[in-house]
Amino acid sequence: MRTSAAFRIRRLSMNGPSLTLLLAxxxxxxxxxxxxxxxxxxxxxxxWSRRKYREVPWAAVTFLLAAMRRTSRRIxxxxxxxxxxxxxxILLVVLALAEPYGVGTLAGGFGGGPAHxxxxxxxxxxxxxxxxxxxxxxxxxxLASQLVRxxxxxxxxxxxxxxxxxxxxxxxxxxxxxAVIAEIKSLRQAHAGADLPGALTLVAESLDxxxxxxxxxxxxxxxxxxxxxxxxxxxxxxxxxxxxxxxEDRLVALAKKAALVAVDLASPSAQNMAVTQxxxxxxxxxxxxxxxxxxxxxxxxxxxxxxxSVELLIDDEPIAEQTINIASDNDAALRFTHRFRTAGDHTVxxxxxxxxxxxxxxxxxxxxxxxxxxxxxxxGKTGAAKYVAGALDPDPTDASPVRPxxxxxxxxxxxDLATFDCVFLxxxxxxxxxxxxRLVRYASAGGGVVIFLGDRIQVGAYNEQASNLIPAxxxxxxxxxxxxxxxxxxxxxxxxxxxxxxxxxxxxxPVTSYFRLIVLPNNSGAAIVAALPGADPWIITxxxxxxxxxxxxxxGSLSSVDAETGEPWTAWPTWPSFLPIVxxxxxxxxxGQQSVWEQRVGSALAQRDRRPLRxxxxxxxxxxxxxxxxxxxxxxxxxxxxNYDATDLSGIYTVRSAREAEPQHFAINIDAAxxxxxxxxxxxxxxxxxxxxxxxxxxxxxxxxxxxxxGWQQSFLMAAFGLLLFESLLAWRFGRGVL
Amino acid sequence: MPDxxxxxxxxxxxxxxxxxxxxxxxxxxxxxxxxxxxxxxxRGFSNEFAEHREYVPGDDLRYVDWKxxxxxxxxxxxQFEEETNLICYLLLDTSESMQYQGPGxxxxxxxxxxxxxxxxxxxxxxQRDSAGLVTFDDEVRDLIRPSSSPTQLKQLLRVMEQSxxxxxxxxxxxFHDLAERLGRRGIVVVISDLFxxxxxxxxxxxxxxxxxxxxxVLHVLDxxxxxxxxxQVTMFKGLEGLGDVVTEPRSLRxxxxxEVQAFVRxxxxxxxxxxxxxxxxxxxxxxxxxxRTFLSARKERVK
Lengths: 739, 303
Fold this sequence. Notes:
The complex is a heterodimer of chains A (739) and B (303). Chain A is α/β, with parallel strands linked by helices. Helix content of chain A is 21%, strand content 31%. Chain A folds into 5 domains: 5-50 and 57-100 and 716-734, no CATH class; 110-261 and 681-708, von Willebrand factor, type A domain (Rossmann fold); 272-367, Immunoglobulins (Immunoglobulin-like), CATH 2.60.40; 372-592, Rossmann fold (3-Layer(aba) Sandwich); 612-669, no CATH class. In chain A, a hairpin with a 2-residue loop joins β31 and β32 (639-641). In chain A, 39% of the residues are buried. In chain B, the strands form 3 sheets. In chain B, strands 5-4-3-6-7-10 form a 6-stranded mixed beta sheet, with helices on both faces. A two-stranded antiparallel sheet of chain B has the order 1-2. In chain B, strands 8-9 form a two-stranded antiparallel sheet. Chain B is α/β, with parallel strands linked by helices and 303 residues long. Chain B is globular and about 70 Å long. The chains are: A alpha/beta (739), B alpha/beta (303). The A-B interface holds A 49-50, 52-68, 70-71, 75, 78-79, 734-736, 738 and B 96-100, 103, 109, 193, 195, 222, 225, 230-240, 242-243, 245-248, 250-256, 258-260, 263. β3 of chain A pairs parallel with β8 (234-238) of chain B.
C-alpha cells in the first residue's frame, strides 16, 4: 500500500492578505524515504576506508609530511566536497523514488490566488459497479468531497454530472465548501449512459465563466471521476456524426485553459452479465393459451458465467427459474412459457443474480393480456369482409380469442375504434370527413390497420385524403398475365412462417387483378412483404406512430370482379395461403403495441388507457425505488393528458390517475450498451489529460494521489545524474586522473 | 666473448637482481657496458711506459705490445705512467633509508648503490687505478683506503656486502670529516639518496671540493619515491624513525611530487654551483648512466 504526504507552508506577504504564497509539496511514496539511510553510505565508506589501509615502509616521509602540510586544508575541503556531492546524489535518488511533487500553485509556478476546480462525475450506470464495499459512483463522490475538503478556502467549484443528458449541478459562485460537499453527496445516478461531448461543452462554458469581478481565476483544474468506459470515452479521435470536432481535439482545447485530470476508478478486468432483451414471442397475449417469453443475456468480459440462475417473475411473483451457462462475450437465450389467467396489464420481469453491477441484471415488460382480440372488419360492399372474418376466426365455437366484428362502411363513423385491437378495411371505397384522421390517431396510439384494395376503391380519394394512413401511393389497376408470388426471401415476419413450406400455397397464390403500389421515397419505414409477377408489391407494411398499417394490393374477398371478364380479381380467399397470411397480418398489425410494453430510461410516460381525465387532476407515480412523484393532468387535443419524463431509473413505474382507479404500469429498461465495461486504452487519450489511478480501498481513498501536481521526479533524477557526472569529474580532478 | 645483447642486459637491474654476489654483478655490469662501446673506456695513453696489462676485448690494438706477443703468444697492452695516479673514493650511503625498495622495483636502493659502487670499483681497479671505499650512515662505518692491489676489489666488495642498514643519514658532518681524512686528491663518488638536510649536505660537498677532489654525486632514488604511485589509503611507516603517516595518496600525489622535485632541483643546483657532477639515478633504470657519468668525469680530469 502506498502512502503519501503533502506538506504545506503558508506564508502571508507583508503587504496584505491578498498576496498569499502557498508553498506546498508532497511525496507520493513515503515508504521510499526508508532509503534515506543510504545517504550515510558515502560517509561510512569514507570512514571505513580510512581504517582499512595498507602499510608500506617509506623512506621519504619528510616530503610526505611537507606535502601534507601544504595541502591538508585543500585536501580536507576536497574530501568534504566529494562526500557532500555523493551524499546529495543518494538523497536526490531516494527523493526521486519517493515521487516528489508540487501541489496546486507550484504546478504552474508561484502564482498564488484561488483555483477554480470543475468536478465532472460520471453518472452512467456502469459506475454502479460494486468493486469493493462501495460502488464506483460512491467512490467518485467520496473522492470529490475529499478534494473539496482539502482545497484552499478561496477555491471555487463547479459540479457537472455526466449523464444523458449531462447537467451542471453547481456553478462556481457558490463558495461555501460544505454546501458543495452536500451537493456532491446528494448526486443520484441514473440508469443511463454518459454524454461526454455534452459534459465537455458544459466544462468549456464553466471555464469561460467570469467571476463577479470580471476576471477568470488564474488557476483552473478539471477533474473527471470516471471509469474510462470505452462506450463513453472510446474512439476519441473520431468525430461523432453530429459534431465538428473530435473528443481529442476538444480535450486539447480545454487543456489550454485548465489542467485536466481523469481519475480512473475502475478495475481493468471487470466482468459483467446483463439481461439485454426481453420480449414475448406472440405479438398479442391472451388468456386463452400459453405465452412464450424470451430473454437474452450477455456476458461481457473474458470470463464465462456458469450455473447462472435466472428467474421469471409475473406481477412480482417468482414463477419459474432456469440455470444457464454463458460463454465469455456471448449471448444466451432463455424461453419461459406462462399462461396469463386474467386479462389486464401484467408486469413480467426476468432477473439474474450474481455479479457486481446489479442494474442490468433484470429487465421488465408490461404485458397487456386480453381475453380476446377484437378485430373490426369494415366491409366496403356486401361480402367484402366475409372471408377475412372467416380467416380470423374460422370456428366461432372454439376458444379462439380472436373476435372479428363485421360492419359496413357507413357504420365506421359511429364506432369507438379504441375498443378494437385491429381494423381491417375490406374494399372500403372512400372515407368520410375526419375518418382518416381518426384512423391515423387510432394507429398512432398502437392500433393496427389492414387495408384490402378492391373494386370499390376510389384511388384519387385514397391518394389525396388517406396519404397519411396508407404506406404507399395507389397506382393503376393491373391485370396479371400469370400467377405467382415472390416471397422476397421470406424476410418479412408476415411471410416468414412460409419459409421451408413451399407446398403451403403461397407461391401459387392466384392474383389476377391488383393495384400497382408505389412506395414513396421519403417513406423509409415501408417494407414490401411479397411481390407479384412484374415485381409489383403485393403487400406493404409501415409503422404509424405506435401502431402499424398493412396495405394489400388486391381484395380479400371474391367480390371484386373484373368488369370485362367477370372473373374475381383473385381466388386468394379460397387459397390455402389466405388464412395464415390474414392471421399473420393481424399479429403484425397488432404488434406495434408491443412497443409500449417497455420503454427506455428517459422516455416520457403518458396515459395509455382510455379513461377520461379531469384537467388539473393529480396523477401519482410510484418509482421503481419506492419513492413517489406526481404530475398534473393538462389539457390536450383529445381531453386531459399527463406525462412524466423523470424516468431515470429502470424498473416498473406505477401510475394512479385516481384514487379508486386501476393503476397503470410502465416498464422502463436500460440501454444495455452501457453494460459493456470494457475500457478505453489510456494511450488513445490525449497526453494533456493526466490519468490518475486510485487505490480502491473501502472508504479511505487517497485524494493526495489525485491532487494536481507537477512531478519533480524527473527533475530530481536529472539533478542526480548531473551530480554523478560532476562527482566523476571532481574525483578525477582531485585524484589527477585516477578514479 | 659474450654477445652484446646478453652483456648489455646485465646493466638492467632486473637482470642483475637475479645474479648472486656483487663480484659477479660488478663484472657483468662492466662487461655489458664495455661491450656496447666502440672503443675501450679505459684510459688514454701517455708516452711514458709504466707497465703491461693484459688485453681485454675492445682495447685499442695500437697499444698492443707485439714483442710480448711474439714471445708469449699472449696479448698485452702497454700502460703509461700518468693514469696510474687516479684515486677513486667510493662513498656508499648505508643508512636505513637506503633499504627502501618500492613496489615494482627489482632491487632496493642499497642493492642498486652497491652494484654501482662495485661496478665502479671493478672498472677502476681493472685499470690499475686505486679505489677506496667509505660506508656511512650517521657516522663513517667502514673506510678502506684506496689501493690498486689485486685483492683490493675483493675486499671492497666484501665490505659493501656486509654493511648493515640501521641508522639515519647524516651526510653533512660526514663529508666534512671525510674531506679532512681523505688524503690525496682524487675522484669522490657519493652514492646516496641524500635524505638529509640540504644545507649541511651541500656544505659538506663544498668542503670536499675545497680539498680539490672531483666530486660525483649519484643521487639514487626509488621510482616510487619520485612518482608516488600509490592509490588506496596507505599507512607509510617511516624509516629512520621518522614516524608513520596515514593518508590518501591520490590527493597528495601532486604536492608530494612537487616537494621531491624541489629537493632534487635544490641539490642539483647546489652541485652545479660547486662544479660537482650530479646524476639522478632511478633504481629501475640500467646502470650504464652510472658508468657513463664516471668515465666522462674521469676524462675531464685526465685532460
